[in-house]
Amino acid sequence: MVRAMAISAVPFPLSLVVLLMSLPHWASAAACGDELPQGRVACGCGDTVVTDTRLVATDPAVSSACPIDGLIVRAGELASSIRLDLGGHTIRGSGIGAGLRVVYGGSDGAVIAGGTSGARGSIAGFGTGLRADAGNRIARISHLELRDNRFEGARMRIAGTVIEDVVASGNHGDGLYLRGTGGRLVDVRSEENGQNGLRLFTRGMAVDAVALRNKRSGIIVDGADNDLADASARDNGRDGLLVRGSCAREVQSQNSDRIRVHAREVSR
After folding, report:
1. Cβ 126 vs Cβ 153: under 8 Å
2. What pTM does this model have?
3. Of 109, 147, 142, 103, residue with least CA distance to 128
């Protein structure tokens, strides 16, 4: 008994505690959503959204801060898609986990709506705001703010994903970190992030985005055939636009205060 007490009294290293808390836990999370057989089930922190759902003010996931993950999205095995609408509300974290983790979005990908153009929803204060680790998991994201997260506002693999009216601000890492093919950024803004505004490892993406006052570069693109004609970046700590790879359309130098293509200076 004395030996057991002595062992239990030894404190765990803080890094180990954080690691254990950060492990994926959606397998044991409760199912929630608007269209379950028993009726609507409110969504709490760490729950898995399994049907089309619009969050309301009384959902615990938006009425209190989440200790680890916010919500996990997992469509049914035979579903073509799943839609989650934050309803203009904020999912707020405690500095770790993911605010929204898309595990499976159906065969066509999930649709994530923060709210409307006049009343965006937001994901704030997590480790990463929005996370999707496979390219086919999200079809569309709109009317969403990703702010004040410890790492990236969003870290995603994409495959034709459309991201519209999304703002990433005040994140300690990159505003948006994307890998994949195709898709479009439409009216996207990334500002005052601790690293880069947008970090894109993409092919064939159309980029209509502005990056302002980020600590490092505004927009960094690695890949081929990306359309950067509507991309702009100003007042960032390093480059405005840094492009490594071919562009489908010319970068417009008047839109940014510094552009480098293939690590060669092409504008002031």
Report:
1. no
2. 0.85
3. 147
